[in-house]
Amino acid sequence: MSGTYLGMPSFPEAAREAVHDPTLRGNLRHATHTIRDKRARAVAELDDWARLREAGKRIKDHTLRYLDRYLVRVEEAVTAAGGTVHWAADAEEANRIVADLVKATGESEVVKVKSMATQETGLNEALEAEGIRAYETDLAELIVQLGGDRPSHILVPAIHRNRGEIRDIFRSEMGEWGRPAPEGLTDTPAELAEAARLHLREKFLRARVGISGANFMVAETGTLVVVESEGNGRMCLTLPETLISVVGIEKIVPTWRDLEVFLQTLPRSSTAERMNPYTSMWTGTTDGDGPRTFHLVLLDNGRTDTLADEVGRQALRCIRCSACLNVCPVYERAGGHAYGSVYPGPIGAILSPQLRGTGSEIDASLPYASSLCGACYEVCPVAIDIPEVLVHLREKVADQGGKGHRLEGVAMRTATWLLDHPAALNAGERLASRTRKLHPKRLPGPGAREWTNSRDLPAMPPEPFRDWWKKNHA
Amino acid sequence: MRVALFATCVNDALYPSTAIATVKVLERLGVEVEFPAAQTCCGQPQYNTGYRRATEPLVRRMARAFEGYDHVVTPSGSCVAMVRDNYPRIGAKAVAEGRGGELADAAASLAPHVHELTEFLVDVLGVTDVGAYFPHTVTYHPSCHGLRVLGLRDRPRRLLEAVKGLELVELPGAEECCGFGGTFAVKNADVSEAMGDDKIRNALSTDADVLCGADNSCLMHLGGMLRRQEAPQRALHLAEILASTEEEPLR
After folding, report:
1. Which of A189, A210, A426, B162 could form a disulfide with A240 if both were Cys (CB 3.0 to 4.6 A apart)?
2. Contact at 8 Å (CB) between B23 and B53?
3. Closest chain A residue to B64 measured between Cα atoms?
4. How many domains does one find in chain A?
């Protein structure tokens, strides 16, 4: 993945500030609870939700099982329809391919459809370094880009910004990038949207190169699919002469029949809509209609490694709906930036350490950024058992024995020894009970200190249960 | 019908009153309970922190300790979830690693017999009124493992609603995690504390005397926060409410 987040501190450290920021906590709470409730209502409308979820899971598992064949099929179909397919093993290669393709057109600016894959590769920064300006055209991505900020949510990347902040960003930054914000811009949603519309219109009409990702690729026909709400995607996909789409290799569905399942589950899970306002589909190029040149860049960037892990591979089923973010109690308090990745929340906690490996401090801490409450698994439209994968990844992190884990390993194995010797355990329990009047309210040392900072320890009982049982029943 | 109590390590060492209450409720309902002394802990802390191999001796111990019992009853949803959900995974991984089927067999022999207390009362004994008396206002927090892994649904509520004198009040945001999460509570102490704060704010907004739960590990976290804040509410395990009678009321 991109180097943008190198040097991120561990999750607990990165989360601390957000947890203690009451405005951010309030914004996140309001936003996530609103979407969460709307999603629950949208899902409850369908009697066959459980079956759609199971079908989505099976289609994805089947596709991943035969991914090698489906990828070749996509390549053949896209090529036959007039497109050109490129293969990128990692972010750097994907960015190189895209930069060269843009340069070959002679253009120095591009318009972009909201895309997780190109955020993952850090494409905008890579293009910038080559003298190419990439304009984000999704409203929230525009806010993030103009503000020199990072996205904090998969679907609503500016979830951490309120209306006043957005107005200020528009006023001070739009002029730098193109058409300035209208005089006297207020923070009403309609005015903000109009300002963005005017600013972007100019870019849509001028741009000769568009860059997108895709929500799905239909293998049987080589058709790419983008679902969106604002129509900016439709503009970018149809107006420019050249279209370049960067798509993760796991985005394939075998047939149109399979697509039908996800076109029901994705909008309801993400925006709580029965159907998203714009669904754009294109197959290669068509004379006199839309871009004359189409390039598809198939991106691996850690996906093959993830696929090799029998437990972890289920993360590749993800359709980026972000329902798991909106129900996650940890995301709600820590915010998206603490996850140090374009993929925040529960799915990010299992995706980032697999795509990037668990070498860095942030990636080694992400599998622990969960209370394992299971709310994410419950809402996932492709039934990714996120808690199962989190625990699986914790084992990998513990095995590599990094910061703190060596001592923890010793403590865990000691506990197991004690728990495997009931007589020793009983002696320990008795000692703790007999010395109970001496126990202080706050304790030093790792673990104990964190516990007693905010909580009293339980009052020790006069005797453990097993002693009571011996006296009363044995 | 041979019934064993799995007290759990947390209850044995820190909350014996919950295990005692479980015994009392079961005996009141005519169930003869045994306590196999070889039992200790299900290994959940080790497993959930990433130490699967250190959990294995405890999987073997659990299976040995409860061998031959028709039912193993425990007042802890998360420990049942550990046995039911994770023991088979531990067994399957051992098989995949070429270490034989011994752990998988241990998991398969134990898992079907283990019941969370409210499951045993409602499903096996077919009882919701256990003859309890508890003249207090109570709000109920359904812990995540009971709610989402075991699917306890309304079993705890039905048991509470049948308690004489008890007034059950709705907990706002009941299905949200309390922030305990085992070692999460110390590894991510700030987020855990923020979640706990929201939970007890919701609990206190009900003006209930008691915040009831069916998992003492969550209650250790919530009760610890309530006491630290000197709040006028106490955390109490469901079993202790069910054990309270007019003759022997819980104080």
Report:
1. A210
2. no
3. A420
4. 2
Chain B residues in contact with A383 by the CB 8 A cut-off are none
Strand, helix or coil at B139? strand
Residue A279 belongs to some domain of the structure: yes
Q: Distance from B19 to chain A by nearest Cα, in Å?
A: 7
Let me know if residue A272 belongs to a domain. Answer: yes
Query: How many beta-carbon pairs below 8 A join chains A and B?
Result: 187
Give percent of chain A above pLDDT 70: 99
Q: Using the 8-state DSSP alphabet, how is residue A159 labeled?
A: T
Which CATH number is A289's domain given?
A: 3.40.50.10420
Q: Does B67 touch chain A (CB under 8 A)?
A: no
CB within 8 Å: A461 and B37: no
Region A362-382: mean pLDDT is 98
pLDDT band at A143 (very low <50, low <70, confident <90, very high): very high
Q: Is the pLDDT of residue A2 over 50?
A: no
Cα nearest neighbour of A12 on chain B: B188
Alpha helices in A335-385 (DSSP H): 345-355, 361-365, 375-379
Cα-to-chain-centroid distance, residue B75: 4
ipTM: 0.97
Q: How far is A258 from chain B (nearest CA, A)?
A: 29
Which residues of chain A are within 8 Å of residue B188 when distances are taken between CB atoms? 11-12, 15, 330, 368-369
B251 at interface of A, judged by CB pairs closer than 8 A: no
Q: Are residues A441 and A294 in the same domain?
A: no
Long-range pairs of A181-185 with CB within 8 A, sequence gap ≥ 24:
none
Contact list in B for residue A330 (CB cut-off 8 A) is 188, 191, 195
How far B183 CA lies from chain A's nearest CA (Å)?
Answer: 8
The answer to whether B7 contacts A466, with C-beta atoms less than 8 Å apart, is: yes
Alpha helices in B162-237 (DSSP H): 184-187, 189-205, 216-228
Our CA angle for A52, A57, A61, nearest 5°, is 145
Q: Which residues does chain B have within 8 Å of residue A369's beta carbon, measured at their own beta carbons?
A: 188, 191
Amino acid at the residue A257: R
Domain of residue A443, residue span? 421-472
Tens of pLDDT, residue by residue over A161-185, are 889 999 999 999 999 999 999 999 9
Residue pointed to by tokens 């149109």: A256
pLDDT digits (tens, 9 = 90+) for A96-131: 999 999 999 999 999 999 999 999 999 999 999 999
Q: Which of A303, A333, A363 is the last residue of a domain?
A: A303
Inter-chain contact B179–A371, Cβ cutoff 8 Å? yes
Q: Tokens at residue B63, please?
A: 């299976």
Within a domain: residue A191? no
Q: For the residues of B4-72, what is the DSSP string, one character each?
A: EE---HHHHHT-HHHHHHHHHHHHHTT--EE--TT-----HHHHHHT-HHHHHHHHHHHHHHTTT-SEE
Point out which residues pair with B137 in neighbouring strands: B167
Contact B74, B114 (CB under 8 A): yes
Chain B residue with CA closest to A469: the answer is B35
Measured between beta carbons, which residues in chain A are less than 8 angstroms from residue B182?
Answer: 371-372
Which residues does residue B73 pair with via DSSP β-bridges, in sequence order? Answer: B5, B115
Cβ pair A371, B193 in contact under 8 A: no
Provide DSSP, A214-261. Answer: -SEEETTTTEEEEEESSSHHHHHHHSSSEEEEEEEGGGEESSHHHHHH
Looking at CA atoms only, how far is residue A274 from chain B in angstroms?
25
Q: Is residue A200 part of a domain?
A: no
Chain center to CA of A191: 30
Q: How far apart are CA A363 and CA A349, in angstroms?
A: 8
- Cβ distance of B16 and A425 shorter than 8 Å: no
pLDDT attached to residue A403: 75
Comparing CB atoms, the residue among B144, B175, B190 nearest residue A16 is B190
Q: Which of B194, B16, B237, B220 is nearest to A457 (CA)?
A: B220
